[in-house]
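Bench notes, afternoon.
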Amino acid sequence: MEWKIASLAECPEMLGPVREMPDTWPEFTIQDPVGNAYYGQIPVEFPEHVLFARDERGEVVAHAHSVPFVLHAEGRGELPARGWDEVLTWAFADRRRGARPDTVSAISIVVAPHALGLGLSGRMLAAMREGARAKGFGEVVAPVRPNAKHLEPHTPIEEYARRVREDGLPYDPWLRVHARAGASIERVAPASMTVSASLAEWRRWTGLPFDTRGDIEVPGALVPVRCEPERDYAVYVEPNVWMRHAL
């Protein structure tokens, strides 16, 4: 199947269809306050770093967001433990102060539900790499959300990230897509995203009772959610895996 891939800088009129494309994210994953503050601004402030794919009917079937930022600078240098949240914060702070970026970070690659399983995620990753190379960048980094980790919420992320198959490729399907594209695992981001909210909100998002103190397994969560009924609060701290693509 052929898809036409372009950036929002080339086709700004496609912003609406890109934003309206359905996805499969669990509700709680879109409640991260850092993501809510910055993610929606990426198409506005970095349109050349937002790619989308259309099928033969012109329907948007995938999109990929990334951001340029300064990694190799005093006080930085290492990919941050706070992963997704931190790199978003860095990218927008760098833009505000007019700093020249030296690295591109993937932020998301999303495929429409009806187009899953067609190889689009790998194609969008390749397009993101090609776009960064064309802009003169030497590497792309990615705080990867392992897409089968939710099946093993109690497995430590360090152990899970390093697990490989007999062919030497990562066990996790999404880590494997990155590895096949040439990426290597750099480090774990143990606190890449944090979602904290009242128990009423967690009940609304998940349909679970959230009435027991301790770790609660939530469908789609990579690790358990910590529930504290006496404080009427629960917190989810999601780990990701930093992968580095040399271009």
